[in-house]
User: Which sequence fits this backbone?
């Protein structure tokens, strides 16, 4: 039989017939030209077997099948005396992939991306994949604002049919936004509109925010922010006509132009409610509607009103309620009326509650905080409360809840809660800076979610020159199924007050106790504790006369049996980023008369958070303390109240406020049996950070006083400070920094302007 050769490319074979051959029976098949590929692999892809009849159609199909594997750059078929010979030319394999000049993107990340495109050691080399990788690398740099990036690739042939790939990258400089121009605005200044945008021209914080680097996604978000602002301000017909983004020839600067049409300002002409009244009356629905006749149109108020009605229906189980505000626009009068069409739908119950994302925390730790039960009627209020309860565990950085309809039915839904774990082990340090003492540190180690059980274990070890503390605390928040908690504390505490603002003394206290917490409601708890402690005192020549009188009365060593009762209420919307709600705590501690001392202490704290806008939150905190002895016994001086420093009056040295021992020219704090603290704080996001919630700032005013010793009154020691504070949830943990300035400083006051606390997560 005459030798017939069939060869060609896949695309050619798919459109052009191979040279005609006479059909013949395949007696045998041989593969030639393979180096790495096994012959069995070729046979597995070859659609021709021994005994088959080979013709033009089957020959073309065989060549296409082998090309489709990607293993070969050339495939030919030859026929000799009934034997089908498959001649292949293998594509080279990749011996190495080298990346040069990359700084902004981790090389490991790039290697993973290249691997997903088929470019990795040992893989078959494909030129199209190399081109695709080059374009993808450029795209990643453009996304980072580096429009001048250059990517050159080289392919070096090696022995044994291998190639070496090299990516040479010249990153270039990041292109900066040179100007943002807004055209068509009349009602609001360009400065006001640009303040709504994340993108900005370079400023003093751009190195951190990167907001001077153009991003298509950021621009889209900024345009939506502007649109929402206009629609919330009455401009019903507002539109963004076009946006232009241009880059200079040197690819260093970007210009953004936004063209918009404001349209007229609309007011609300009327508000009506339509729908059945057997579930929710129209009168009750109107009370939930925020937007009123005569108001300036606001899309936000309209949306919030619809949500209020939906949530109210949801409290009664109507999870699929549909509330639509149908507009009636009068363009001549620039007025718009709304009819809220209320459709309650069917009442629904919860089929399943699914929890995901808790890789460490046990499922039951989350489920026991739920107030919405499976098999019960759906309730938006219980869902919201469940989210708050899980949020306040403080085990998660994110807590999200979704309700999902059950397919095929109209009266069931599933609740899906997704959490994002955060480190609950905490190694915390606190520090203050002054010219007299320098840097003072404290520290502790806490695991608030022991082995994912929700139990709390804290070990504090402090070997500083002021406080030497060794303590161990354990709390089981669900000692019983109904939420009764149990805990114990063991401690040894040595104090050397010589290095503080206090009158100097040394004390060594060892003790321990047990605690029980009983829930009153989801937001209220009572606490009961009993403990015993022994204190040994050592005075110095500089100790105050009050301390010396105490030792004369009680002696240098005393033992106390303490009983305490507490009450707390916490209705904050979030423990992660508080914007609304309040926290109250009341505490009574009594030294029982069976021991050496008889005294009692009363403390109360109330913190209130109120949202002023979406970004600004106002916080007021008040604390009061009162202590006294009974049975003719004085209050031990080391049980006195103190004030000053972080947590009370910032800007003053810790313990520095209150009565002082001024005898013999000393200026040491004595503390007191009365304490009053007040804080007012305006919390807001860090300017330039957009919606990033990792950094929060505040402007504060603190006030505080301690009195009661030597008949010193409240006003004599009352101090006011003001300042600026920053809270940053850093990778190392929460960092709180404050700079405080006194408003009524008096001679002898001990100031400490800069103070901070830092928690390190592990």
Assistant:
């Amino acid at each position: 039989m005459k030798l017939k050769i069939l060869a060609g490319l896949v695309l050619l074979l798919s459109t052009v017939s191979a040279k005609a051959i006479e059909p013949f029976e395949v007696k045998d098949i041989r593969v030639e030209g393979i180096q790495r590929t096994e012959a069995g692999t070729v046979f597995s892809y070859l659609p021709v077997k021994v005994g088959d009849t080979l013709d033009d159609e089957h020959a073309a199909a065989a060549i296409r099948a082998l090309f489709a594997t990607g293993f070969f750059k050339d495939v030919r078929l030859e026929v000799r005396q009934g034997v089908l010979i498959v001649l292949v030319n293998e594509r080279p394999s990749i011996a190495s992939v080298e990346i040069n000049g990359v700084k902004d993107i981790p090389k490991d990340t790039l290697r993973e991306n290249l691997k997903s495109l088929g470019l990795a050691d040992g893989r078959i080399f494909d030129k199209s994949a190399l081109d695709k990788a080059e374009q993808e690398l450029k795209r990643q740099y453009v996304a980072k604002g580096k429009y001048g990036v250059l990517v050159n690739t080289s392919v070096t042939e090696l022995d044994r049919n291998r190639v070496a790939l090299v990516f040479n990258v010249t990153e270039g400089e990041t292109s900066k936004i040179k100007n943002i121009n807004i055209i068509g605005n009349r009602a609001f200044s360009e400065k006001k509109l640009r303040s709504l945008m994340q993108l900005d021209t370079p400023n003093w914080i751009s190195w951190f925010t990167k907001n001077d680097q153009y991003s298509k996604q950021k621009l889209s978000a900024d345009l939506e922010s502007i649109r929402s602002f206009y629609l919330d301000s009455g401009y019903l017909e507002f539109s963004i006509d076009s946006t232009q983004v241009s880059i200079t020839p040197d690819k260093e600067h970007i210009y953004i132009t936004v063209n918009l049409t404001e349209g007229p300002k609309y007011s609300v002409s009327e508000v009506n409610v339509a729908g059945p009244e057997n579930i929710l009356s129209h009168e009750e629905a109107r009370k939930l509607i925020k937007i009123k006749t005569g108001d300036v149109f606001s899309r936000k108020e309209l949306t919030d009103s619809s949500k209020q009605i939906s949530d109210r229906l949801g409290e009664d189980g109507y999870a699929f309620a549909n509330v639509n505000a149908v507009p009636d626009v009068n363009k001549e009068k620039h007025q718009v009326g709304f009819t809220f069409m209320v459709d309650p739908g069917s009442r629904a119950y919860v089929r399943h509650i699914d929890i995901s994302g808790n890789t460490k925390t046990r499922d039951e730790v989350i489920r026991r905080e739920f107030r919405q039960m499976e098999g019960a009627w759906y309730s938006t209020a219980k869902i919201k409360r469940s989210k708050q309860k899980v949020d306040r565990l403080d085990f998660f950085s994110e807590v999200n809840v979704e309700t999902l309809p059950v397919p095929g039915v109209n009266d069931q839904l599933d609740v899906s809660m997704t959490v994002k774990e955060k480190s609950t082990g905490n190694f915390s340090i606190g520090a203050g800076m002054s010219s007299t003492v320098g840097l003072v540190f404290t520290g502790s180690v806490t695991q608030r979610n022991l082995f994912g059980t929700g139990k709390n274990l804290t070990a504090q070890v402090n070997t500083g020159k002021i406080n030497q503390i060794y303590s161990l605390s354990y709390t089981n928040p669900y000692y019983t199924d109904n939420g009764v908690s149990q805990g114990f504390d063991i401690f040894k505490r040595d104090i050397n007050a010589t290095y503080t603002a206090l009158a100097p003394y040394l004390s060594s206290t060892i003790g321990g106790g047990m605690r029980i917490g009983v829930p009153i409601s989801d937001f209220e708890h009572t606490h009961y504790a009993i403990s015993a402690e022994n204190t040994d005192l050592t005075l110095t020549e500089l100790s105050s006369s009050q301390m010396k009188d105490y030792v004369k009365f009680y002696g240098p060593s005393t033992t106390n049996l303490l009983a305490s009762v507490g009450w707390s209420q916490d209705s904050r919307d979030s423990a992660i980023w508080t914007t609304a709600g309040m926290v109250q705590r009341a505490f009574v501690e009594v030294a029982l008369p069976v021991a050496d001392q008889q005294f009692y202490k009363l403390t109360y704290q109330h913190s209130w958070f109120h949202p002023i806008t979406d970004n600004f939150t106002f916080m007021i905190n008040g604390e009061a303390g009162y202590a006294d002895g009974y049975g003719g016994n004085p209050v031990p001086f080391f049980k006195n109240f103190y004030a000053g420093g972080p947590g009370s009056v910032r800007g003053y040295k810790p313990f520095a406020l209150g009565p002082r021992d001024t005898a013999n020219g000393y200026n040491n704090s004595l503390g007191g049996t009365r304490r009053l603290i007040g804080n007012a704080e305006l919390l807001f996001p860090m300017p330039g950070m957009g919606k990033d919630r990792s950094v929060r700032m505040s402007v504060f005013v603190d006030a505080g006083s301690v009195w009661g010793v030597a008949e010193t009154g409240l006003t004599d020691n009352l101090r006011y400070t003001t300042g600026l504070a920053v809270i940053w949830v850093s990778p190392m943990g929460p960092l709180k920094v404050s700079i405080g300035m006194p408003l009524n400083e008096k001679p002898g006051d001990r100031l400490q302007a800069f103070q901070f606390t830092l928690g390190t997560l592990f």
Q: What stands out?
A: Residues 1-19, 432-440 have pLDDT under 50 and may be disordered. The first strand starts at residue 4 and ends at 7.
